[in-house]
């Protein structure tokens, strides 16, 4: 990569970074737990390294293995959060994920809520993908991808999933970036069964970066993702519990706990979309969203009923659902390097 282009990109990135509100402690007003209080190693044990105080954990990917952890309990509804600092430098093909799923229990009807961080070639930003599956809707992926308004490798940022019966909100720090609300048309595609929390780092060479064009290069390993500020503020419910009105029965202690938690969740500040938050969300999406299933007419000729098609937003996307980029004038005559795709988007932001 040309040094000059890299420096320009960094300068632009710095300008964008300074306009993003820093995470204030206590926004969610929920106390983080120690790793062992809520989580247990899932795979790649040797590559899972707890901090001395047990409050944070590093997940490592090297040429031998990735690693991951899983919550000890499953939850139906709640606020789930982790601060994550992503691996630095050349991270093409590396995937870091923080997500909820019940895929191991329900092969055909699983639910899932994802944050997936997709590594990139040097000098480019990580991308974040969110996705929602409900009741086995795997043929109806609802992926969205975004660039980040900050350098996610220089410090930790908080990534949160709020899941209630009334809405799902993905947060980055204090900014809501996506909201999903249940509707009749969405039906069972809205997740409703208990799920476990997962955090993993793995080799996604096959698809993570530019559709698999850039593989993991282990010359740059180990790749280390740091997880801290772990929040599991949810209603604990066995994953296979037949959920019905009965599961929230006041007669049963768990039901009582869940009913109380659910009603407190519904009125929590972070569950309520104020006009200010909605505006912040729109602004984030206008500036940073680089792919939306709602605009991917090649995959979904008819947009899902739950899509909120914003014409001014739609104009910025190709039929593939990917953002159009604005080629820079001074590079017009040069051979286009596909690894610069993101820079064009960043440039465009700077022009706004
Ligand atoms: C989930 O899918 C199963 C199997 O297709 C179906 O029987 C069930 O009614 C669905 N549940 C919801 C909530 O839509």
From TrEMBL:
Catalytic residues, chain numbering: 112, 116
GO annotations of cellular component type: apoplast
Coiled coil, from the record: none
Database matches in SUPFAM superfamilies: Concanavalin A-like lectins/glucanases
Cellular compartment(s): Secreted, Cell wall; Secreted, Extracellular space, Apoplast
GO biological process terms held by the UniProt record: cell wall biogenesis; cell wall organization; xyloglucan metabolic process
Pfam (any one): Glyco_hydro_16
Name of this chain's protein: Xyloglucan endotransglucosylase/hydrolase
């Amino acid at each position: 990569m040309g040094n000059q282009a890299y420096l320009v990109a960094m300068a632009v990135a710095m300008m964008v970074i300074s306009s993003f509100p820093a995470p204030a402690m206590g926004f969610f007003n929920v106390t983080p737990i120690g790793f062992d209080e809520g989580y247990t190693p899932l795979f790649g044990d040797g590559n899972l390294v707890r901090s001395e105080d047990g409050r944070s954990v590093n997940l490592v990917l090297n040429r031998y293995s990735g690693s991951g952890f899983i919550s000890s309990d499953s939850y139906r509804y709640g606020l789930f959060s982790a601060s994550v600092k992503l691996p630095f430098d050349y991270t093409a093909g590396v995937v870091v994920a923080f997500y909820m799923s019940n895929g191991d229990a329900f092969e055909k009807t699983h639910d899932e809520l994802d944050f997936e961080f997709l590594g990139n070639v040097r000098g480019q930003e990580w991308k974040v993908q969110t996705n929602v599956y409900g009741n086995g809707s795997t043929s109806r992926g609802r992926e969205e991808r975004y660039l980040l308004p900050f350098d996610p490798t220089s410090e930790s940022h908080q990534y949160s999933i709020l899941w209630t019966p009334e809405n799902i909100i993905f947060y980055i720090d204090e900014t809501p970036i996506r909201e999903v609300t249940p509707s009749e048309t969405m039906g069972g595609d809205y997740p409703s069964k208990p799920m476990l929390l997962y955090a993993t780092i793995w080799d996604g060479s096959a698809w993570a970066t530019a559709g698999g064009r850039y593989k993991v290069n282990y010359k740059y390993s180990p790749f280390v993702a740091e997880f801290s500020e772990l929040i599991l503020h949810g209603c604990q419910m066995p994953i296979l519990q037949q959920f019905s009105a009965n599961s929230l029965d006041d007669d049963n202690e768990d039901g009582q706990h869940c009913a109380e938690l659910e009603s407190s969740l519904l009125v929590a500040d972070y569950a309520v979309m104020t006009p200010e938050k909605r505006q912040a969300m729109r602004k984030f999406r206008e500036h940073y969203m680089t792919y939306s299933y709602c605009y991917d007419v090649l995959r979904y000729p008819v947009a899902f009923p739950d899509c909120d098609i914003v014409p001014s937003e739609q104009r910025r996307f190709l039929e593939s659902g990917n953002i159009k980029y604005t080629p820079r004038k001074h590079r017009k005559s040069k051979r286009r390097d596909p690894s610069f795709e993101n820079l064009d988007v960043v440039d465009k932001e700077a022009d706004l």
